[in-house]
Write a structure and sequence with these properties.
- With 454 residues, the protein is an all-alpha fold.
- It has 2 domains: 42 residues, no CATH class; 387 residues, Ammonium transporter AmtB like domains (Ammonium transporter fold, Orthogonal Bundle).
- It is built from 16 helices and no strands.
- α4 packs parallel to α6 and α11 packs across α13.
- It is globular, with a radius of gyration of 29 Å.
């Protein structure tokens, strides 16, 4: 007869307390039970289930990646292209195309790895250089293949430097665009992406929140645009001859594409088709619509007429300012951000540029630099834990973290951009000759014309 471990325990307890009757009962019960072949072994803990791909999340992230790329090509290309004079439209389109190819190569070689693999506070390592190990199994996102996450983040890396050159439009050589972009990605974008999203200084140590790129994308591009605009100087004839946009039709179409693509930009940054993505989706809609309406209303008050350019500028400003906060704020917060986006960048573009005297051709600094900074700060003020559990309880500490993140970003971007801008200026030059600038960059850089009219 075999007595199980449980019965042995009962037997020992009975003996210790002198319960002989209980012992007899225990033995009788054991005798009636079927005899096991061997003593029962302890049941091992079940191994955790391996990460599995969620088809809904994967579909949403692939869709988001596609429409974020659609923001650059053709959205930003048309938006910027419509805002310049017709002799320079192809230069804006070529910049978007060239940057897309260049940044993709850099991302494959080292950019993704430097941004998202383990490293130090400022930069990642080279574990995934040349996309080694980046395959269709889940990685950074638990329900989405790592190669999809890689492409999603690539689309952010593409649009960021493309934004910069709105500030330098109509007076920067195409060769300088490519050389500066290559250097800037290693000196600014990859480190910032790691610092904010890859476990580095701003996200992990400072504890700042940046849902979809207020610091990484908009502050970095906007403040860089200001630096380059100052280094380059003003366009020939600036302030003396008309430099109105040559096609507000193209600008409006580009704005609309940007708005639609921004849903992938913001809601896609949730990394899943979940409730946080839904919160970012509605917040993006509210901020964009209200930002456009408020900007045009201010134009009506201060300039006498609401312009299509005003609507477009306000919509983009609303999208910019909501970006860092999209997955952290409720609808009330999104409305407040929309109003702020319509007001603060409006005055920066309308009056600050005139006071300081820089030539930010397409208002990249006023909309993205100022707007991104405002959005990063308002994220600390308006973030709601009921929307996203990642929001910390200590509001004061969060606001301080957001201010510290803005300070680090501005300092890093400005110092690096000044150094890189001066290096490129000395080595290959930044501006075309005065004659080439007068003729237009379409002909001098690309040998083509955007419009051939009989």
């Amino acid at each position: 007869m075999f007595i199980t471990t449980r019965k042995w325990t009962s037997l020992l307890a009975a003996v210790l307390v002198g319960g002989s009757a209980f012992v007899g009962t225990c033995v009788a019960q054991d005798a009636a039970a079927p005899a096991p072949v061997a003593a029962a072994a302890a049941t091992p803990e079940p191994a955790p289930a391996p990460p599995t791909i969620d088809h809904g999340d994967n579909a949403w992230m692939m869709t988001s990646s596609a429409i974020v790329l659609f923001m650059t090509l053709p959205g930003l290309a048309l938006f910027y292209g419509g805002l310049v004079r017709k002799k320079n439209i192809l230069s804006q389109l070529a910049q978007c195309l060239g940057i897309t190819g260049l940044v993709t190569i850099l991302w494959w070689a080292a950019g993704f790895s430097l941004s998202f693999t383990e490293g130090n506070n400022f930069i990642g390592g080279l574990t995934n250089a040349f996309l080694k190990g980046v395959d269709s199994t889940p990685g950074t996102l638990p329900t989405v293949p790592q190669n999809v996450f890689c492409v999603f983040q690539l689309t952010f890396a593409i649009i960021t430097p493309a934004l910069i050159f709105g500030g330098t439009a109509e007076r920067l050589k195409f060769s300088a665009v490519l050389v500066f972009t290559a250097l800037w990605m290693f000196a600014v974008y990859f480190p910032l992406a790691h610092m904010v999203w890859g476990g580095g200084l701003i996200g992990a140590k400072i504890g700042a929140l940046d849902f979809a790129g207020g610091t990484v994308v908009h502050m970095s591009s906007g403040w860089t645009a200001l630096v380059l605009a100052i280094i380059l100087g003003k366009r020939q004839g600036y302030g003396k001859e008309p430099m109105a946009p040559h096609s507000m039709v193209l600008c409006m179409v580009g704005t609309s594409i940007l708005w639609v693509g921004w849903y992938g930009f913001n809601a896609g940054s949730a990394g899943a088709a979940d409730g946080i993505a839904a919160a970012a989706f509605i917040a993006t809609t509210l901020a964009a619509a209200i930002g456009g309406f408020v900007w045009a209303l201010l134009e009506w008050v201060f300039k006498g007429k609401p312009s299509v350019l005003g609507f477009c500028s306000g919509i983009v400003a609303g999208l910019v300012v909501i970006t860092p906060a999209a997955g952290f704020v409720n609808t009330d917060g999104a409305v407040i951000i929309g109003v702020a986006a319509g007001v603060i960048p409006f005055f920066a573009v309308t009056y600050l540029k005139k006071i300081i005297g820089y030539d930010d051709a397409l208002d990249t600094f006023g909309v993205h630099g100022i707007g991104g900074t405002v959005g990063a700060i308002l994220t600390g003020v308006l973030a709601d834990k009921a929307v996203n559990p990642a929001v910390p309880d200590d509001r004061t500490a969060l606001i301080i973290s957001q201010l510290e993140a803005c300070g680090v970003t501005i300092a890093w971007v400005v110092v690096a951009s000044v150094i890189l801008g001066l290096i490129v200026k000395v080595v290959i030059g930044l501006r075309p000759s005065p004659e080439e600038e007068t003729e237009g960059l379409d002909i001098t850089d690309h040998g083509e014309e955007g419009y051939i009219l009989s």
